[in-house]
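Researcher: Let's do a round of design. I'm pasting the structure tokens now; please hold your answer until I've finished.
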């Protein structure tokens, strides 16, 4: 199969990002043959290697935040923490890495697109995100909660958030609803206190 035909076959896959195994299925070939074909296409600038076993076949640049669930498969994931707060314009700083909430184990993942910091949440506390231009993005309330929950759960209850500029749509009720889901009373109290400190210095639109 020519490079053009191979590329066309891969582009027919619905997702702009695919694994080597998915490429092998699309091309009806072996894993090793698919890997060689992808490497050839990458050398020609037609596809891009994101990390080992993961490729972009998009014809235009993709938002690095849009692939977080691909990095944590089979576990779901969404952009949260400082990355989500920056996306909402709630903080001024632009984080150097993309912070991700997932059911996957915590770790840092290096790719050709960006560096991702994966933070694990328990299933009861996973959620609170919405789709925005192909990106699963935490709401402002959930990004604040995730940031302070992970800080408190990891033994750093006094970690401070950057100064917050809260939108007019911010809801303390929604934020407190997430706090109420924390099963451990001590951790629930720590997170509640951390949130109170963060909001005491926040600005409101």
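Researcher: That's everything. Go ahead.
Model: Designed sequence:
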């Amino acid at each position: 199969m020519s490079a053009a035909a191979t590329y066309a076959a891969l582009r027919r896959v619905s997702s702009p990002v695919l694994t080597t195994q998915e490429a092998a299925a699309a091309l009806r070939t072996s894993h090793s043959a698919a890997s060689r074909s992808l490497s050839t296409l990458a050398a020609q600038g037609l596809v891009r290697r994101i990390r080992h076993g993961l490729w972009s076949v998009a014809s235009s640049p993709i938002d690095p935040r849009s692939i977080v669930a691909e990095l944590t498969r089979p576990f779901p994931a969404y952009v949260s923490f400082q990355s989500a707060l920056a996306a909402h314009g709630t903080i001024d700083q632009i984080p150097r890495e993309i912070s991700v909430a997932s059911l996957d184990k915590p770790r840092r993942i290096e790719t050709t697109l960006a560096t991702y910091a994966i933070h694990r949440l328990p299933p009861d506390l996973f959620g609170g995100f919405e789709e925005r231009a192909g990106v699963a993005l935490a709401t402002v309330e959930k990004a604040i909660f995730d940031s302070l929950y992970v800080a408190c759960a990891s033994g750093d209850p006094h970690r401070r958030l950057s100064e917050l500029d809260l939108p007019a749509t911010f809801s303390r009720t929604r934020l407190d609803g997430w706090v109420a889901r924390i099963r451990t009373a001590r951790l629930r109290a720590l997170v509640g206190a951390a949130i109170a400190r963060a909001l005491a210095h926040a600005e409101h639109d």
